[in-house]
Structures
1.
Amino acid sequence: MALSLFAMACNDGNDTSNPASNQPPRFNNTVLSIALLPGGNGDVYVGGDFTAYNGAQAIRIVRLNVDGTMDPAFATGFGFNSSVRSIVSADNPGGNIYVGGDFTTYNGIQEIRIVRLDANGAFDPAFATGTGFNNAVHIIAPAGDGSGDLYVGGAFSTYNGITVNSLVRLNADGTVDPAFVTGTGFNNTVFIVVPAADGSGDIYVGGAFTFYNGIPANNLVRLNANGTVDQTFVTGSGFNNTVFTLVSADDGSGDLYVGGAFTNYNGTVANDLVRLNSNGIIDLSFAMGAGFNNTVFHVVPVGDGSGDVYVGGAFTSYNGLEANEAVRLNQNGTRDLAFSTGTGFSNTVFRVVPAADGSGDVYIGGQFTQYQSTPIGRFVRLNSTGAFVR
């Protein structure tokens, strides 16, 4: 199989971890997060558990050019001392990014599970987090309302000494936003937070919880901008297991895709993925049949106007047919066969991110070490047909 320019540009000839020549680029451990740079040029931030990229030091975060080479202008020094789980661009003109995870230091400086970095990789002291979070940050989501605030979700119970059970809204200077009141918060981990796409200021929150502020909420809830439960989004008995991913449909419907490790939603069979209307009722026009046979970790709109979505996870089949860890689905839930992954990935896909540079390409990251039987180090760029980018 011919390799992509993206792959070959990354192979500096010095990585002896794989004796085969001309192999695609390789991270030496799991990729957990992928974030595009603003501007649509195809460059990406990549975060995870790795310490090297194609033989060069890259300690849990790296910025890659569109050709796959490391961007030396993003200098991280000693990097992070533990996993990076979430990377998002800050809502400001400086090109800053927020990074969250399990870490307690960045480049030798104490930064406990969240930090804001400048475009050159230096930490931004204007975002002052004090003692930070007492447990893992799994998701950072900009509020998207022009305030510069951000929502942070995870496994924590305190932030800078303040009780915030698994979810908090922070101002752009790192202080807690007191207008967002969560009370006793969640009784278990928050994995995903997504602002509603209707301009209401509401957010959807998914995770492993069963209660929010003393109210039953099985793995999914919609909150108003002040932190109260939005009673118009009715989930009934909710999901029977963890929700890992949420995304609003990009068709203006107000619908929500929900993915995770569940097999049931409000008494109805729903194997790891479901589409809900804005009132919480299942959208039956998205018909998945038998669904997935294992966990969905990420779902994202393709963004080409088709209404299709990419889905990544730990599954090996979709609706009874082979689908190894990644698939593209049409708006009605059928498989889009134009995106042909063949034998697919050898292990879990955690992130699928369309390149958004007009190419139709997609970045995919996870635990895999092969794609279509070709060695690949946990990260790849594919075109819209599922082939390596030529």
Note: The radius of gyration is 20 Å.
2.
Amino acid sequence: MPMRLWLALLVLLPLCACTPQMEVQVVRYPEADRADAEPSCPKVIEDGARIPSGCIDVGDVYVGDTGFSTRCHRERVLSEVHSAGCQVRANLAVARRITDPISSCYQVRARLLRCPPAEGVVE
């Protein structure tokens, strides 16, 4: 095999490799660091569901395809949303599905909220 072909394969091979990694981007708002916030993890709900009154935004998260992601089904993506919510001590995450015709991954952007305990959103 000619040397050029070997070099081309060496350069292209990493680009074709698939990964179980997903893109996870978490934005933490200043409200997440309030000293009176109790440690908590969120209940994840779909966009369009009723959001209790008195909630404050404490963060935002995007979970999606890196371009080569595998094992990016709905349950795994929502699990990543849940983990991101735990980082900012949210007790509610409102996930909105993002449709990308090029990707086969389930992708979402979610608002991470901290709601008053009286609203009953903590699981």
Note: Residues 12-17 have pLDDT under 50 and may be disordered.
3.
Amino acid sequence: MIAPAPVDVEGALIAGGAALLPGFLAADECAALRACYDRDALFRSRIVMDRHRFGRGEYRYFAYPLPPSVERLRRDVYELLHAPANAWMERLGSAERFPAELSALLARCGAGGQSRPTPLLLKYGAGDFNCLHQDVYGDIAFPLQAAIFLSAPGSDYTGGEFVLAESRPRSQTRVEVFTPGRGDMLVFPNRYRPIAGTRGVYRAAVRHGVSSVRSGERFTLGLIFHDAL
């Protein structure tokens, strides 16, 4: 079961560009999701990051139909985030809005040729890392995404901090580092966020990545709400 959101998600996103929801999944739910990684039939592709110079480690994109637990999480988290996403678009002066139901967004993606599922499981071992990047996948891109952390820092792994890098015009890059607990969910920008400046609101580009894991194994469920080309 999904825990109730313990924070003001929209307020946290506007204030700092990310929202951390502690205890979003229980330990047994995290274990069940980790166990999915070796079930080949659940996935459409496996990416070994160093082959593409994305970093080191690997991840797997789920295939449709998604496992029921992943489908439920993707749908329910989208319903939590569509209002903050639309508030962001309004702050940016954009006319683009996102529907209240995920199925409507996916229908929009399909009409635009984006039909491949994007939820993924990421697996890191000692020495693995993920370079700073964005998960856009096509012209239709929901502005928020989520990572649910399935391993416990300090016991399952060390290192492997989650990193957000924000680029503002005429400024140095701002970096935030997170070490969420097992079952925590972090909501963060897909590619940019609104920032209030002296001349109004502007877009700050945001990338995310993972620092080097020093020991153990680290698993994460990534929830991206638009489909890919």
Note: The helical segments are 9-16, 27-35, 68-91, 102-111.
4.
Amino acid sequence: MPRRTKLDLVIAEVISHLKEVEGKIDRQEVDDLIGDIESASAIFVYGAGRSGYVARSFAQRLVQIGFRAFFVGETISPSAKKGDLLIVVTGSGTTQSVVALVRSAAKLGLKICAISSNRNGPATRLADSVFMIPGKTKLLERATFAPFTSLFDIASLMVLDGMTAELMERKGVTDEDIGRTHANLE
């Protein structure tokens, strides 16, 4: 039998972790965030590093299914105001740029949801709601084959894509509808 490579070990660990996440997601937290998204005037999404890529992907999907959504820091993002929603993706809940943004959003009266693996980080303690997604963060809670924050990042992408599918169903949006809003200047 061939030796299992690091690649094999990482793939097996990610698959196992995603199955674990499926059983640990709090469905009430899912419903609460979906309700916040549906009722927000505008949705601002942010994350730093790899969590930022996950956040950008989610903001893109929200736009493609008909929401007024923006990734914080882009030059085309409008002013935020009371009635808007800020969603931050932060595995550790400690990233300085995320904590500073959450504080700013709170001063403006935005509703804030932190998607995190750490309920006790500064950003998560300041948020109005926390959506917990298990995974190893930069706090290095445990040894893994998957590098650094990969388990949280991959799990967050999966869960947010699942929420996108739920939002699509509720809005009656199809893949064909997304195809019409997908970038075409390629």
Note: The chain has one domain: 6-168.
